[in-house]
Amino acid sequence: MATHTMIVRSSSSSLAASSPLTETLPLFTTRSLTFPRKSSFSRLRLRFFAEKLSQIDSSNGCASLQDSGDNLTEEHDTKEESSTLSITVVGASGDLAKKKIFPALFALFYEGCLPKDFSVFGYARTKLTHEDLRVMISRTLTCRIDQRENCADKMDQFLQRCFYHSGQYNSEEDFAELNTKLKEKEEGKLSNRLYYLSIPPNIFVDVVRCASLRASSVNGWTRVIVEKPFGRDSESSGELTRCLKQYLTEEQIFRIDHYLGKELVENLSVLRFSNLVFEPLWSRNYIRNVQLIFSEDFGTEGRGGYFDQYGIIRDIMQNHLLQILALFAMETPVSLDAEDIRSEKVKVLRSMKPLLLQDMIVGQYKGHSKGGKAYPGYIDDPTVPNNSLTPTFAAAAMFINNARWDGVPFLMKAGKALHTRGAEIRVQFRHVPGNLYKKNFATDLDKATNELVIRVQPDEGIYLRINNKVPGLGMRLDRSDLNLLYRSRYPREIPDAYERLLLDAIEGERRLFIRSDELDAAWDLFTPALKELEQKKIVPELYPYGSRGPVGAHYLASKYNVRWGDLEDA
After folding, report:
1. Range of 363's domain?
2. Is the pTM higher than 0.70?
3. DSSP assigned state of 12
4. Catalytic site residue 320?
5. Which of 38, 82, 125, 469 has its Cα between 20 and 30 A from that of 307?
6. Which InterPro entries match (predicted)?
7. 416-435 burial by CB neighbour count: b if 16+ within 10 A, else e?
8. Which of left, alpha, beta for 371 (phi over 0: left; psi -120 to 50: alpha)?
9. From the candidates 130, 258, 320, 431, which is the catalytic residue?
10. Which of 224, 256, 288 is the last residue in one of the domains?
């Protein structure tokens, strides 16, 4: 829930012992006691009206916010004029930081979404100067959304706000030096600090400890964005959460799953709850099955060292696809407040049966030659052990034990080195009872069912498959698509998911971030099957690079009288 923040110095352990809002000390040197206030959605609505009044030509309405929206909101007052924002990207020399985080921050700056007084610091072990960092990240910056102002000038302005500090991830002294540099930029103003941990999970706690003790804000808020993976199973995830909460409150931890920032995923609740045509159909009475599909048309290709530690189930299914499932299946929340939405998602996860081994299949891609080109298998990757049993493909059937979804199979499928790249949600509806046109579909009644497809990527779109009469004198039926293709309807480029999530973290909006009890419930569903897979050393079914995946996935779907919808379109 969005909050007003009152800063209290944690100068004694007695405060921690007496306050019900505290976690185990030591915490960040400032504590945030939270009180209800107007939600971020109210602020977003005010932004919308500000945009209309000012006729802002912008893809996200942030462009002239400081000029047009300040007089409409309580947040943008003289108090904000005297505050600063310091964003520290920990692991600044890594691929994620270079390819996603810095470009997203620049896009927010370009669109006018960042405060007037902000600075960006890169922190990593690599020895770099300020100029080295600027040259490195300048290679990935683009003015891709709109050309309202000279792109080169905007890049120069942004890069002059970027600085670098080299240090060890477990060194309090190095973070104390970072703190000194942050204070120099903050110039005694009220300082808000955001840390983005773009680092391996085994050093999360070291960084949080050092930042907590040596580089937290003393008069504003401090927040930490944590990248997945959040552990390998229930036990390791719970231990990570306990360790983080020695230094952070739950309200300071922003567990990011970038798929929740995808435009079509965020639109999912809008599609359902603001369109009368869909909500009455959103149950077991009308929906036959739901398919959540993720596919990549490339393998690990030299980057298998990280992937082999986790596999496709932990990397994609336990987080990306399960989060989408929870959003899809949740009951109507009391409000659009972050806690109301996240509580409904938790209810869905707690209503689900833990995944059983008989309800899933795993696969691993093998080498294949196609069109005169040879594609290597997974274990041909030099960074992967020769005897690896790590799945690069998995399909699973999951069920929700509640009145709305009882008996409806939710089928997940995720894989690498497949025939196509994409991510989509497919909702297959039941057959029409007593269909008058049954004979026109011969014996294949599946072709007579309606299907709603939400394509998350690429070519974002929503289409509804319906039955239609082919023009002519005869009675011949056809399946046609009512298609909303985003690039046709909304010509401006869609902002990257990291832009939305970074902006939400800056504003304190937690709706698209994962709460600790939500994370626990998610791991509880997958941990038993993952342990059984590893203990029994289940050998994954091999499938050729560039194929549609292992045959076992088709048998799994047919077990529940389901066809994979993406294969019919292929």
Report:
1. 260-432+517-569
2. yes
3. S
4. yes
5. 125
6. G6P_DH (IPR001282), G6P_DH_AS (IPR019796), G6P_DH_C (IPR022675), G6P_DH_NAD-bd (IPR022674), NAD(P)-bd_dom_sf (IPR036291)
7. bbbbeebbbbbbbbeeeeee
8. left
9. 320
10. 256
